[in-house]
């Protein structure tokens, strides 16, 4: 249904643009209005498809549990790397082996936050989460290049950002 809706939106846009280009002075609303209506129907279809995919209570509940579990697991993994670093060059491998899967699981269900907590809740979690992810990417690069001080500093910053994201998620769940 989503593909059909997107197709209708695209078709409506193209036909509408063509109709608007026929005469630079006026627009034939008798032809243009049905085309506009097709675009609106397409947008509604996309919205319904999105709601059906992400909107059921059971799906939202399951996905928010995955959010919580994957963020907790990523936090534990980063804490274990920080507590017992495997050596500067091995930190990048440890991130790949212990953290990345948890981050990918979190990202795969992040849209559930929009349904569960609204756009503001989504943004308040994703801001620090994205910061933690960026710091972790920097740790990975510094590890590959052998910069010990940078690995240590940015591993701590990544951990701090993930903790903030987890706290915000807990606060949202409580309300």
Describe this protein's structure:
- The chain folds into two domains: 2-54, no CATH class; 57-174, Four Helix Bundle (Hemerythrin (Met), subunit A).
- It is built from seven helices and no strands.
- It has helices at residues 2-22, 29-54, 57-83, 91-98, 100-108, 112-145, 148-174.
- Helix 1 (2-22) packs antiparallel against helix 2 (29-54) and helix 6 (112-145) runs antiparallel to helix 7 (148-174).
- The longest helix has 34 residues, at 112-145.
- The model has no long low-confidence stretch (mean pLDDT 91).
Protein topology:
Blueprint: H1 2-22, H2 29-54, H3 57-83, H4 91-98, H5 100-108, H6 112-145, H7 148-174
Helix pairs in contact: 1-2, 3-4, 3-5, 3-6, 3-7, 4-6, 6-7
Summarize it.
The protein has 175 residues and is mostly helical. The protein contains 7 helices and no strands.
Which short descriptors sum up this protein?
Four Helix Bundle (Hemerythrin (Met), subunit A); mainly alpha; 0% strand; 2 domains; 7 helices; single chain; elongated; 175 residues
CATH class assignment of the largest domain:
Mainly Alpha
Secondary structure: helix percent: over 70%
Q: Please compute the radius of gyration using only Cα atoms.
A: 23 Å
Q: Secondary-structure element sequence?
A: HHHHHHH
Low-confidence regions: none
Q: Which second-level CATH architecture of the largest domain applies?
A: Up-down Bundle
């Amino acid at each position: 249904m989503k593909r059909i809706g997107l197709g209708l939106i695209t078709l409506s846009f193209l036909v509408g643009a063509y109709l608007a280009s026929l005469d630079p002075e006026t627009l034939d609303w008798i032809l243009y209005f049905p085309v506009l209506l097709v675009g609106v129907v397409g947008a509604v279809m996309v919205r319904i498809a999105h709601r059906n995919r992400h909107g059921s209570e059971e799906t939202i509940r399951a996905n928010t549990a995955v959010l919580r579990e994957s963020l907790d697991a990523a936090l534990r993994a980063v804490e274990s790397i920080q507590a017992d670093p495997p050596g500067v060059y091995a930190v990048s491998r440890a991130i790949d082996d212990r953290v990345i899967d948890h981050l990918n699981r979190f990202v795969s269900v992040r849209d559930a936050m929009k349904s569960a907590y609204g756009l503001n809740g989504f943004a308040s979690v994703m801001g620090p989460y994205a910061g933690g992810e960026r710091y972790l990417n920097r740790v990975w690069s510094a590890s590959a290049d052998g910069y010990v001080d940078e690995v240590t500093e940015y591993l701590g910053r990544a951990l701090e950002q993930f903790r903030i994201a987890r706290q915000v998620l807990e606060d949202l769940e409580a309300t």
